Amino acid sequence: MCSFIRLGSSAALVAMFASPLAAQTAATPLPLVEVSPYIGYFMASNIAEGPIGTSLSSGSGVLYGAQVRIPIVSSVAVVGNFGYSTGKLTFGVPVFGGMSFGDAKTYLYDGGLQLSAPALARGKSSLIPFAQLGVGAVRREIALGGLTNKSTNLAWNAGFGADMAIVPGIGVRILMKDYIGKFDIREATGLDVKSRTMNDWGLSVGVNLSF
Predict the structure, then answer these.
(1) Lowest CB count within 10 Å: 23, 31, 117, 179, which one?
(2) Beta partners for 114?
């Protein structure tokens, strides 16, 4: 329930960013497309929680990916994203810590809308806060004992960040994104464990290339 409350709050944030749209006009022609390759860190939540504080996690790790942004008007754009991360399947035990016993790969596929706030002038550069809201899929591949199991599940996402221009056509993007969805543990691991709603976070820094 808390996950969907956070998603609703993110939607409200998106609406707030969209409010200046009627008053904002583009001073320069909009780019046809913007590509943003990025690197960051993927923070995976527990896929299952057992008795006395034990847990099962698909593992956090370095996040690689790219995002494509197609402007519609000055403050609204369509975005598509692909991300990839690797980690360890980890069994957590209180006091004793975690024990790794398998490899986990995570693939992120999603699309949605980006709503940008008016630019904040910073000398020769501009800082543009934005919010994103979308839907897609999270695919996990679990390798355990020579066998690989896969599970692909629907995931909503909400994020916020900022773009900073460096020179015409090139900029920097910082983005924090929350992926909200359930994980089919039986399909991916073969364990008879009930699925739970997960919140996986991706923090990334990328380069914006406008064409």
Answers:
(1) 23
(2) 77, 132
DSSP E strand stretches across 4-45 = 34-43
Distance CA 79, CA 100 (A): 35
Separation of first and last alpha carbons in the chain: 41
Summarised one tens digit per residue, pLDDT across range 149-162 is 888 889 999 999 99
Specify the pTM: 0.79
Cα-based angle 20, 18, 173 (whole degrees, multiple of 5): 100
- φ, ψ (nearest 5 deg) of residue 185: -65, -40
DSSP 75: T
| Model pLDDT, residue 149 | 81
Among residues 211, 171, 210, 179, the alpha carbon closest in space to that of 197 is found at 179
Asked if residues 136 and 111 have their Cβ atoms less than 8 Å apart, the reply is: yes
Q: What is the pLDDT of residues 9-55, one digit of tens each?
A: 554 444 454 444 444 444 557 788 999 999 999 999 877 777 777 77
Residues 78 and 111 sit within 8 Å (Cβ to Cβ): yes
